[in-house]
Automatic annotation (TrEMBL):
Belongs to the catalase family. Its EC number is 1.11.1.6. Pfam families: Catalase, Catalase-rel. Gene3D superfamilies: Catalase core domain. Residues 7-388 form the Catalase core domain. Residues 1-24 are annotated as: Disordered. This is Catalase. It is an enzyme of class 1 (oxidoreductase). Keywords: Heme, Hydrogen peroxide, Iron, Metal-binding, Oxidoreductase, Peroxidase. It catalyses: 2 H2O2 = O2 + 2 H2O. CDD domains: catalase_clade_3. InterPro entries: Catalase (IPR018028), Catalase_3 (IPR040333), Catalase_AS (IPR024708), Catalase_clade1/3 (IPR024711), Catalase_core (IPR011614), Catalase_haem_BS (IPR002226), Catalase_immune_responsive (IPR010582), Catalase_sf (IPR020835).
Length: 482
């Protein structure tokens, strides 16, 4: 069988795949061997910085189909009944580095990029509907406490509990993390959430607040703490492997797409602040509405090009969908494009995986690695027949805000506090065995040798605030008098 010849990156036929050019068979090598020099120099540049968070992950391609009519809530093209939209998903752990174990106790990233007719729409969520903090100015401190110490470069549970107990708004998310949902069996067996509240507006300009829920059709399955720990050693890539293999054998995983819709004016007096990312909207108030399904059916052909260089950004919004006053979302609208310009380069949107599937007619151009063929005119407005903006597509997005500029916590709504929704999870949702596992997961985590006696007392106090029984169980396990 004849195979094509190999080339260098400029297309020249390679003179050899394994011999460098030398002076005689035993002689020194030559600077003129540009085949060798390109090979070595390119290898030295094979890595881009790993993501500062969510470094370890995996992903696949698929399609979302909308089966219900929600045009009364949004005019976004991807959510119109019957619409099929291609998508990319990336799952990840948060705190571990590129080579870390998939089954570590951590939230899981659940990033979706929809290639819509109005450009890319990204939903960069997690496998939980809430988060640890509600102000973006705490994010880097939070992440520092979850990653490595400055002196010995070790992860440190004492500093994790230090941060959590000093920031009680974390209790709801830490509760999720300490149930067995903190160690999902696979990425296929967990739900995804958009987590933030977003704005939807319809063709008549009517506005609604929306939350997204992606319910796994495979059913929720988790590992116990012991199973997860054992798998860290046995197969650190277990989740990446599982997704890849399922898709290779044609066992395509799917998720049912649901939304909660809140009429725009309800937000002012709703019992919890609907923009506070540490809170859910209880289903009894705003029931989940099924609107469609998405399925994953194609593995990447080059992991680096399609997954490592994938750039998700909550600021990728499309007509019919807007941001909200959620302070965390506002911070993220800045952070992601900024990190992509640094991690990948300013023209990251020209890479095939990040490129929209529609023609771009942007007046931004040039810069490192640019290959988009921008044509004249190069400025707007112009009288040369250049593209013009589509203001009318965004009609409905605007709403009134006013107030004094300040640094302040959210205004309290009548049921706002840091513990009651975590308490509802403990009291109403978890089974007896799930409660027992939650206690032992917390005790296991806070029993790490670096966790001090004082810190253990603070841990007990934190969980007692969620529920006295939970506090008592943790106190018993940690040997702290409650
Ligand atoms: P509901 O009884 O209507 O909903 C409970 C929710 O909890 C369901 O979505 C259920 O979905 C989910 N759930 C079940 N087991 C667990 C678990 N071990 N860990 C995390 N979630 C679980 O009650 P409310 O809507 O009034 O919410 C009560 C509490 O449930 C909330 O305070 C919150 O802690 C939790 N919750 C609420 C969600 C919401 O959006 N309202 C979403 C997820 C959790 P499923 O079994 O399909 O996962
Ligand atoms: C990744 C910042 C909150 C989910 C990242 C990255 C940064 C970042 C810089 C790396 C992106 C990259 O290099 O490609 C922030 C900031 C936050 C915040 C500043 C708060 C102010 C959140 C929240 C969620 C979330 C609340 C979920 C609800 C993710 C996910 C990824 C990620 C899923 C991985 C994206 C991917 O798959 O490539 N975040 N984050 N983040 N973040 Fe956040």
């Amino acid at each position: 069988m004849s195979v094509p010849y190999s080339t260098d990156d400029a297309g020249h036929p390679a003179p050899s795949d394994g011999l460098s050019q030398s002076v005689g068979p035993n002689g020194p090598l030559l600077l003129q061997d540009h085949f060798l020099i390109q090979k070595m120099a390119h290898f030295n540049r094979e890595r881009v910085p790993e993501r500062v968070v969510h470094a370890k992950g995996g992903g696949a391609f698929g399609e979302m189909e909308i089966t219900e009519d929600v045009s009364q809530y949004t005019k976004a093209d991807l959510f119109q009944k019957g619409k099929k939209t291609p998508l990319l998903i990336r799952f990840s752990t948060v705190a571990g580095e590129l080579g870390s174990a998939d089954t570590a106790r951590d939230p899981r990233g659940f990033s979706l990029k929809f290639y819509t007719e109005h450009g890319n729409y990204d939903l960069v969520g997690n496998n939980t509907p809430i988060f640890f903090i509600r102000d973006p100015s705490k994010f880097s401190d939070f992440i520092h406490s979850q990653k490595r110490r400055a002196d010995n470069q070790l992860r440190d549970h004492n500093m994790q509990w230090d941060f959590w107990t000093l920031n009680p708004e974390s209790a709801h998310q830490v509760s999720f993390l300490m149930t067995d949902r903190g160690t999902p069996k696979t990425w296929r067996h967990m739900h995804g959430f958009g987590s933030h509240t977003f704005l939807w507006y319809n063709a008549d300009g009517e506005k609604f607040w929306v939350k997204y829920h992606f319910k796994t059709d495979q059913g929720v399955e988790n590992l116990t703490a012991d199973e997860a720990k054992a798998m860290e050693g046995q197969d650190p890539d277990a989740h990446r492997r599982d997704l890849w293999q399922a898709i290779e054998r044609g066992d395509y995983p799917s998720w049912t797409v649901k939304v909660q819709i809140m009429p725009f004016d309800d937000a002012v007096n709703y019992r919890v602040n609907p923009f506070d990312l540490t809170k859910v909207w209880p289903h009894a108030d705003y029931p989940e509405i099924t609107i469609g399904k998405f399925t994953l059916n194609r593995n990447p052909s080059n992991y680096f090009a399609e997954i490592e260089q994938a750039a998700f950004e909550p600021s990728n919004l499309v007509p019919g969908i807007g941001g909200s006053p959620d302070k965390m979302l506002q911070g993220r609208l800045f952070s992601y494009p900024d990190t992509h310009r640094y991690r990948i380069g300013p023209n990251y949107l020209q890479l095939p995986v990040n490129q929209p599937k529609v023609e771009t007619r942007s007046y931004n151009f040039d810069g490192p690695m640019a290959y988009a063929n921008n044509a004249d005119p190069v400025y707007a407005p112009n009288t040369m027949g250049g593209a013009v903006s589509a203001n009318e597509l965004y009609e409905g997005e605007s709403y009134h805000v006013s107030g004094e500029i300040m640094r302040s916590a959210y205004e309290l709504h009548k049921e706002d506090d840091d513990f009651s929704q975590a308490r509802a999870l403990w009291e109403k949702v978890l089974s007896d065995s799930e409660r027992a596992n939650m206690v032992s997961n917390i005790v296991g985590h806070a029993s790490a040798p670096e966790v001090t006696g004082d810190m253990k007392k603070r841990v007990v106090e934190y969980w007692t605030n969620v529920h006295p029984d939970l506090g008592a169980g943790v106190a018993k396990g940690l040997g702290v008098e409650s």
